[in-house]
Amino acid sequence: xxxxxxxxxxxxxxxxxxxxxxxxxxxxxxxxxxxxxxxxxxxxxxxxxxxxxxxxxxxxxxxxxxxxxxxxxxxxxxxxxxxxxxxxxxxxxxxxxxxxxxxxxxxxxxxxxxxxxxxxxxxxxxxxxxxxxxxxxxxxxxxxxxxxxxxxxxxxxxxxxxxxxxxxxxxxxxxxxxxxxxxxxxxxxxxxxxxxxxxxxxxxxxxxxxxxxxxxxxxxxxxxxxxxxxxxxxxxxxxxxxxxxxxxxxxxxxxxxxxxxxxxxxxxxxxxxxxxxxxxxxxxxxxxxxxxxxxxxxxxxxxxxxxxxxxxxxxxxxx
Length: 319
Fold this sequence. Notes:
Layout: H1 5-10, H2 24-36, H3 39-46, H4 50-64, E1 69-72, E2 75-78, H5 80-111, E3 113-119, H6 120-125, H7 127-137, E4 142-148, H8 150-158, E5 164-167, E6 176-190, H9 205-210, E7 213-216, H10 221-230, E8 236-240, H11 243-251, E9 257-260, H12 265-269, E10 274-276, E11 284-292, H13 300-310
Parallel strand pairs: 3-4, 3-5, 7-8
Antiparallel strand pairs: 1-2, 5-11, 6-9, 6-10, 6-11
InterPro entries: LysR_HTH_N, LysR_subst-bd, WH-like_DNA-bd_sf, WH_DNA-bd_sf
Organism: Streptomyces tropicalis
Keywords: DNA-binding, Transcription, Transcription regulation
């Protein structure tokens, strides 16, 4: 049996396996030749031309250093070496099919569920609409929601406990990539009976900084924006862990609160709360989708991200 120069090189230690073993396409072609007894029929089955099939068989023979197929006007048949190689090829192709089936199962498992972590304002006032739109596109995707402040969202993502997150703070937490999906405005609100609701001249930023306020807890995006705008930590009258609790306290007349404009539309319309302008301060923030750095969202997470950009529910980011 003659060995080609290529076959000797193929067995040289240190040559990568991919350079020593025929590719899957060539092995599938060989199996088709064995089954159909014709190189032309095998070429049609695998979707290539007969000259391309002949070239692929010759390349495989050069790589292995043995003749695999005897060609004649009556058709093509395997050599003894070709029959042996075909048996080996069948095992490789079956293993590749098993590998592909397993990978597909992993994709199906990934695509059958979506874990979302969202800060409270987004979870309460924006996410439900996005999830309804996602359900229309992917009715078989099960979604779980983990709600918390922006710091908790970052922790969930970094621990691998969520596939996509949404935060409201001024900056992107370390270890995460992000995309701005919308802009939000914070406003100061009080009950109608509060002295600020009856003032002709609104309070200034310094007065707001000196006044005890009903606030979200530290680590929330709302608190981060307010502290940064004031240039120092705001003074808490109460620190509460949900937007709903902050609103209820403000409606009761306990004191002024700082909340997302998204959260108080109904209360402002019914006059249970009134908006109080503050001089010398801008309370605006970006709303961001976040995910672990270097891992772009895929599957349902990617689709949800696209929905937030097409239907943000609030003012879209400029540019």
